[in-house]
Design brief:
Strand order of the largest sheet: 3-1-2-4-9-8-7-6-5
Number of helices: 5
Oligomer: single chain
Helix content: 10-25%
Structural class: alpha+beta
Number of domains: 2
Strand content: 35-45%
CATH architecture of the largest domain: Alpha-Beta Complex
Shape: globular
CATH class of the largest domain: Alpha Beta
CATH topology of the largest domain: Phosphoenolpyruvate Carboxykinase, domain 3
Radius of gyration: 20 Å
């Protein structure tokens, strides 16, 4: 029998259906702050999950590799965070092979997404349980969340977030730029500052037009899984420099500063349009800055004074 878990992240509900005796059950601690319910089910219908952005059904017996044989390769992403191969299936479904790196792709999971992006399946027979299995499941859920909310005024972004003065400040930049380092400088030097998320926060334009930043179950190497939110105060793109200086960006510069950090399938027209709409709304509502900085306390002070 399966357990059906319900979670709410950034105001969006999603479900995870997982076999009761699966080794993956020990991998869900980071989701507990966001858990809404847990029930036993044998079967469920699309009507049962109609209030969600997606439902992921976990298959721990099959590897799903046969689904890839008649698929067309669309893209591959191989960086310091994951290896993901994106394919188009014979019936138009999207297929993702997910693993820690290219060398481990034979132990990867195969994620299949249908036309409506709601009922999805992860074939995890090759990575059942263990740290690699946890990595695959986390990335599958993170990917599904980014794709399914891309038309819901929501961004899942690669960034670190400090909350100070009642507002959330998002620090982003290329890998290795020092996002986490700068956030720690705020925590150590700005009175009352605290960490909301250190890797993948959610930015959402609410129905009333306000922009909020939420914690998520995905926080990289820092175990910070806060089910909390704050008004978005500013977005700051970082770059290393031999000095500390900050300037406000506008128009296309602000858009270009934020867009690379937003997760989505940018080649999908509907998702790309949704992403563009949300990005435009965010930069029209909050300040976007570029901070050239050293890893020192002065960088935190200069940044805080400029964006607060």
């Amino acid at each position: 029998m399966n357990k059906l878990y319900s979670y709410i992240v950034g105001g969006h509900r999603f479900y995870l259906s997982i076999p009761e005796k699966s080794g993956f059950l020990s991998c869900l601690d980071n989701y507990k702050p966001f858990q809404e319910s847990e029930i036993y089910v044998e079967n469920f219908s699309p009507e049962d999950i109609s209030d969600s952005v997606f439902c992921l059904n976990l298959d721990i017996e099959s590897e799903g590799k046969d689904l890839m044989y008649n698929s067309d390769l669309l893209a591959e992403f191989d960086d310091d965070t994951a290896f993901i191969s994106v394919m188009s299936g014979g019936n138009g479904e999207r297929i993702f092979l997910i693993s820690l790196n290219r060398e481990m792709k034979e132990q990867g999971g195969v994620l299949v997404i249908g036309d409506d992006h709601r009922c999805c399946k992860l074939y995890a027979g090759a990575c059942n349980g263990g740290r690699h299995g946890q990595f695959v499941l986390n990335n599958a859920l993170m990917l599904l969340y980014a794709l399914s909310t891309s038309t819901e005024n929501t961004l899942l972004i690669h960034a670190s977030v400090a909350v100070a003065d009642g507002k959330g400040y998002v620090f982003l930049g290329k890998s290795g730029t020092g996002k986490s380092t700068h956030t720690r400088l705020w925590l150590n030097n700005i009175p009352g500052a605290w960490l909301l998320n250190d890797d993948n926060p959610v930015v959402k334009i609410e129905n009333d037009g306000s922009v909020m930043v939420y914690g998520s179950p995905w926080s990289g190497k820092t175990p910070c899984y806060r089910n909390e939110k704050a008004p978005l105060g500013a977005v700051v793109r970082l770059s290393q420099a031999p000095h500390n200086s900050i300037r406000r960006l506008s128009g296309i510069q602000a858009y270009a500063a934020l867009a690379p950090s937003a997760s989505s399938m940018k080649w999908d027209r509907v998702m790309a349009d949704g992403l563009h709409k949300t990005l435009s709304g965010v930069i029209q509502s909050v300040g976007v800055f570029h901070l050239e900085c050293l890893p020192d306390a002065d960088a935190a002070f200069i940044c805080h004074d400029a964006v607060k």
